[in-house]
Design brief:
The chain is mainly beta. It is about 10% helix and about 35% strand.
Amino acid sequence: MQEEMLLPELDEESAPFFDYAAAGELRVQRCSACGTRRVPPRPMCHACGSTDVEWELLSGRGRVWSFAVPHPPLLPAYAAVAPYNVVVVEAEEDPAIRFVGNLVGSADGPLNEIDPESIEIGEPVTVVFSSPVDDGLGPVVLPRWVRAS
């Protein structure tokens, strides 16, 4: 990826998500007690209060639920690539599961390679995974989204 990125701080709950992403898998926490899926990862189920968790593999298919187009002034890390898109994708398996990311043409494409005016709410997308990005704290693989073919 050419542009500088602000990466998430990994903790005990979120680290497995990024470990699975590095293996090319989109997984979400699922409560072992009641089956409720949850994103972002957290230590306790919001539905039943259980701390028992498993990581469920998703298909990686979804649809654009919403999107925004940031314009300058922005965080300095993103100013050079603005305007770009930020999409909210609902998972095919569970519309309550939503991921925030970018719609790109390829896994390592620049954030601004898709014309924001071409994005449509409801269009089908598929997850892809970036090459490892390192901000000095260690490499992170990011899920991104491409149009489903």
